[in-house]
Amino acid sequence: MEIWINPDCSKCRSALSILDAEQADYTVRRYLEDPPAEHELRDVLARLGLEPWDITRLGEPAAAELGLAGWSRTPADRDRWIRALAAHPILIQRPIITAADGPSVVARTEQAVRSVL
Asked: What is the pTM of this model?
C-alpha cells in the first residue's frame, strides 16, 4: 500500500504509527514534494468513491486565493477541481492510503487506517 503524507501533519504521523505498529508493508509518498498528476488524482478519487471537492482542504490559504469555496460542484466542474489539486497539492486532504488490492481511504481516524489493513 501507499500512503500520501505531509510529514508536518499530526494525522499523517498518527497513521504511520498505526501502520508501523501493525507491521504493514507500505511506501510513503510525500505528496507536497512529489505531487500526484491529474490522472493519479482521478484514479485515487475513483478508488475512494469521492469527488475532488470531497478531498479538498478549503481552509488552506491557497483555497481562499483560488476562491474554491465559491466553485460549482457539478460533474462539469470536476476537471477544474482536479487541475487545482494537481497544481496546488497542499489542498489535498491527508493522509490518503491506497492499498494494492483496491481499497483506498482518507485516513484521518484510527478506524479509517485500520480499515485498509
From this structure: 0.93
